[in-house]
Amino acid sequence: MSEMPRLIATLGVRTCISPLFAATSFAHRIFLNPQVADLFRSLYLGTIIESGRRLGETLLDIVTSRMSHILLSLPLMSIHPVLVFVVKAEFSTGDFAYDWVLHYLENHRVWNESRSFKVVARNPSSRPNQSSGLGAGDGQPLAFFEPAPATPSLLRWKTRHFVPLTGVKSYWLSVNKSVAGYVHYDTEEEVGGTLVLRLWSRNRRILDEFVQSAREFYVQSKVRPRRVNPDKEPSGSLLTAHFPQADLSHDWILAYLRSADALQDAMQFEISTKQSDLGWGTGPKSDVRYMPAHDSTQQFLFTSPKTGRSTWLQVSVKPGFQTNWMNDQPTTGGSITITLHSSDKNVLTDLINCAREKYLEIGLSKVTVHLADSRGDWGKTITKPRRPVSTLILPSNVKEMILGDAREFLASEAWYNAAGIPHRRGYLLYGEPGTGKSSTIHAVAGELGLEIYFISLANPGVDDYSLANLIRATPSRCILLLEDIDCAFPSRDNGEEEPDIDQYGKPVWHQSAPPQSQVTLSGLLNVLDSVSSEEGRLTFATTNHIENLDPALIRAGRMDVKVQYKLADSVQMEQVFKRFFPLISNDASPFPVYTEVELDDYATKFARAVPPEVHSIAQIQGYLLTKKRDPAGAVEGVQEWLEAQEEEKRVLRELKERRKTEWERRMALMREEDEAIHKEDQGNGDEPSNGECTGDTERRSIGIQAGVGLDS
Ligand SMILES: Nc1ncnc2c1ncn2[C@@H]1O[C@H](COP(=O)(O)OP(=O)(O)OP(=O)(O)O)[C@@H](O)[C@H]1O
């Protein structure tokens, strides 16, 4: 080629002299040039080869279309070397493309023309597109037809495109499946294998079209895809989202999966009869709930209501575990992992929005309560039926006042911001047990559509640090419920705990002290005031002993509204009575029938008979439950019940008295013994140093802690 410029220059000069001479000389020189000659030789050879290939292909087309049945029975391996112009593609079992092609072949007309199959029934799960399970109730698995391993099959495949002159072209392809890939039914591990496809065309584009057709067919058939290990997938190909149990989004997803019946194909469940569990069962009250078994993985097709697009999701549910088997702590540490067969983040957004809507829809009839676990994380979530505010029996205006105040607070965020006051409000409900404090909070939550985040400060797993974490993890616009807030700071005056007394009046000593709160007052005050606390939160605290609370805790700004709950007065008693005995209009009722006037009369008599502000509504409710449907009987039996109540109180008082006396006697005895030992040691000149204890003293204290009472 380096001679080219010289040649052109010479030609230029010669052309000026004689054009004919110049042309002849140029052609001569060109053909003498070895590189140019090589070029012409290759073109010539290429033309012959291409013509040969086309001729061969046409002949092969004619022969194979006429004699396909003969060809199919030939060992094709021996023919392949002859077929120089084929496009070969390999698909390995661990890949989606393998599934597309195999599914396409299995369902395509061309495959049914094949004469070579491998029939499998033992392990249908090796075929991602086949639903597993036993056949139609006969206890035997179904049979599936796969390309036979190591036996090539010859198929005729039509392209999709119509070409004007030649029409729709079809091509021969041979499929050769090497050792079949399968999933071990125990480990679900893919064991290798390849599918080799040879397309009898030199045109790569035909292969592209084949794979594309297989892929589209697979997508359209909504075939359940193979299970994937998100960690092993190439990054960016599949989206994976984790929803930890401690986060509200976990419950959204759980609610959605449950409503979408996403686990209908699951094969491993944990069964729960607790209706409050957020499980998968959707049936009526009597039904059990089905929780996906530990680490189970399910797949289901999510159709976005926004775009109408369907995407396969793989859901792995890791149920929470009980951190402390000694007490009935809620489970914790669970999570849901969702892998999308898509890399489009919008699908994930659609899923989350959809799940949230479903959750809110379900929540309209329920109150959701999030429980703090013993590690200081938000653990299990339970749902309770909403309690109508009308069922609360409280002195006039109390419930209206609480509800109105909470409503106004939620609606006045802008005002709080403008005034520079943190948008949060605290309510302290205090008073006798069983007077309706907790019931009020549940009713308010239902009425305002808020979720409850429940923390027991007596929970040994909750300390200042975890309390701060828990509160930080609550969303805005929720109810933070701190029940029995006085338990957190038990009165430190009586360091020595008194023993219980058994039925014979003997002291029963505790082996270990009951769990005491790890939360300090300053820790609690800090989190209540913390600037990081979510705004728009209603904090409800309840206590039976307001007198034990530090004034700092209940000052305005921390506890803005304080409501006292008293034992039932006459009006409340009448109301409880009437709630228990609704009017029966049906004369055929097997229960005593009474008129409205009669019921009013019974209620008044009942309220007069029971002394006011002595019993809680819970106690009265307990009595009336024994007289269901019999208001007259309830009035008749009330005196007897009151006497039984008095007797019960007397026995308890007496037991307490005896326990106190016994405790004081023991303490005196121990002090005497200690003094005696002390004197004895002094006599021996054996003064024990401060803080040390003698063997005897040690024995006594161990005896008390180990629950061995000293004989009187
Ligand atoms: N004022 C009330 N109105 C309606 N039901 C009540 C009322 N007080 C108590 N009850 C009933 O008594 C039971 C106990 O009530 P609740 O738990 O609300 O009381 P509490 O004051 O929170 O008790 P504690 O201080 O022991 O936690 C519930 O079944 C509730 O329905």
From TrEMBL:
All copies of domain AAA+ ATPase, residue ranges: 423-569
InterPro entries listed in its UniProt record: AAA+_ATPase, AAA_lid_BCS1, ATPase_AAA_core, ATPase_AAA_CS, BCS1_N, Mitochondrial_chaperone_BCS1, P-loop_NTPase
SUPFAM superfamilies reported in the protein's UniProt record: P-loop containing nucleoside triphosphate hydrolases
PROSITE patterns assigned: AAA
Catalytic function, reaction form: ATP + H2O = ADP + phosphate + H(+)
Localization: Mitochondrion inner membrane
Entry-linked Pfam families: AAA, AAA_lid_BCS1, BCS1_N
Gene Ontology CC entries for this record: mitochondrial inner membrane
Region annotation Disordered: where it falls in the sequence: 670-712
Compositional bias per record (Basic and acidic residues), positions renumbered to this chain: 670-682
Record membrane topology: Single-pass membrane protein
Annotated keywords: ATP-binding, Hydrolase, Membrane, Mitochondrion, Mitochondrion inner membrane, Nucleotide-binding, Transmembrane, Transmembrane helix
GO molecular function: ATP binding; ATP hydrolysis activity
Annotated family: Belongs to the AAA ATPase family. BCS1 subfamily.
Protein name as catalogued: P-loop containing nucleoside triphosphate hydrolase protein
UniProt organism field: Mycena maculata
